[in-house]
Amino acid sequence: MTSSATQPAKDSRNGHFAASYGHRYMTRPVPTDRLPDESNPAAVAYQLLKDEVELDGKPAQNLATFCTTWMEPEADKLIAEGLHYNLADEDEYPHVSEIQKTCVNMMADLFHAPDISTDGGGMGTATIGSSEAMMLAGLAMKFNWRNRQLAAGKPADKPNLIMGTNVQICWKKFARYFDVEPKLLPLEPGRYVVTPEQVASAVDENTIGVCAVVGSTFTGEFEDVKAINDALERLNAERGWHVPIHVDGASGGFVAPFLYPDLEWDFRVPLVQSINISGHKYGLCYPGIGWVIWRNRAAVPEDLIFRVNYLGGEMETFTLNFSRPASGVLSQAYNFLRLGREGYTTCMTALKANADYIRERLEATGDFDIMSDGQSLPLVAWSVKESAPYTAFDLSDKLRERGWIVPAYTMPKHAESVTCLRAVVRENMSRTLADDLVDDVLWAVGELNRTKPKLAAEVIEREANQEPIC
């Protein structure tokens, strides 16, 4: 850790990085609210920003994020070397484009997409992350629904999307940004995924699709895609509808195939038309790389595809972003080649083993109710027992004293009475680090048990001694 003597102190009173390196590099502060008047040596610019970033939490102890915080040195090198390749410029960088197609084909095969060999390869694209990926999938569902409605002479002005309140915020953004009514299915204490019965009761002829979550942000659970499919198939047959399923596999898309290969959640399920995946989560890449994969080319409406030729040759594009570095795609391709099915299976099995270990140790204390179990992401979600003198938020705050970022949050609407904590297990968590986490949780619990009752008693005594207000 850089010492305070060499950190660039940020003076909020005048918007400057103070001149902390005066005797070596500089004798004047650097402004933060405007461009500096003069240039600075490369070493100074680097050190100022490096020291500022190092004031943040340690990535290894940030158990709030699903995003990858470590990759191998060879991947780091490949990422740096790929920064100046524009992924959008297929004519100038055809081999980069082919690497992207290779990744799409590998994922289409991993998710059991049909007819890959006869359909010209898998249908999909790299994105900045799952937010862009699911918006493309959502637009495809909306356009396909609109085209069916107009062809049947029906109105197409009131589309809706079925999803649980456990979806990630990007789905609510999609609904607002693209004028789709979100039909949010409620959860309840003890049930944190949607049921097929809920889905069936909410669907109507204006439903563009159903979003099923494989790897909930809140508890890591997988929704039963196969059961949702069966309920929808019956409705579609009875009503003459064509309501499809989109699977939000942002977190679980790279977990389920390796930990639960027999679980039917992907294109083996007939109504699943598209899947979004975050390469920068359990795809084991740095942010931002995501993917959207469709069942086949027919699932992507022509309205979503643009053709341009101003970069040289004619090319198709169907992303919300355009120019971006090839680094994310190269990092994903590196992992696919480096790990293969064997490596991903080994990695996910190890992550689950560490998550199970943490879960078992926390459960053995008797202080917590475990909320994540069975088929789920490699994480631990737990709540503090009601009899405890402290809350989940108290425990989260206390753990920060030991450097841990373990988020505490309330569950969504209709289950908001439940507050839980969540620790995400990632590739760089060793068993030693897992032990350190649980040991620090036990320390925090001891401290809170010791101090919280005393504080509560002091408040009661103080309130009892107050003069009544007339």
What features would you describe in this structure?
It contains 11 helices and 16 strands. The chain is of the alpha/beta class and 470 residues long. The chain has 3 domains: 10-56, no CATH class; 76-338, Type I PLP-dependent aspartate aminotransferase-like (Major domain) (Aspartate Aminotransferase, domain 2, 3-Layer(aba) Sandwich); 351-460, Aspartate Aminotransferase, domain 1, CATH 3.90.1150.160. It has a 7-stranded mixed sheet with strand order 4-10-9-8-7-5-6, sandwiched between helices. The chain has a 4-stranded antiparallel sheet with strand order 13-14-16-15. Strand 1 and strand 2 form a beta hairpin. Helix 6 (196-202) runs parallel beside helix 7. The longest helix is centred in the C-terminal third of the chain and has 39 residues, at 327-365. It is globular and about 70 Å long. The model is unreliable at 1-9 (pLDDT under 50).
Question: Topology, pairings included?
Answer:
Layout: E1 10-11, E2 16-17, E3 30-31, H1 42-53, H2 73-81, H3 94-110, E4 123-127, H4 130-151, E5 160-164, H5 169-177, E6 181-185, H6 196-202, E7 207-213, H7 225-239, E8 245-248, H8 256-259, E9 272-278, E10 290-294, E11 306-308, E12 315-317, H9 327-365, E13 368-370, E14 379-384, H10 392-400, E15 408-410, E16 419-424, H11 431-464
Parallel strand pairs: 5-6, 5-7, 7-8, 8-9
Antiparallel strand pairs: 1-2, 2-3, 4-10, 9-10, 11-12, 13-14, 14-16, 15-16
Helix pairs in contact: 2-9, 3-9, 6-7, 9-11, 10-11
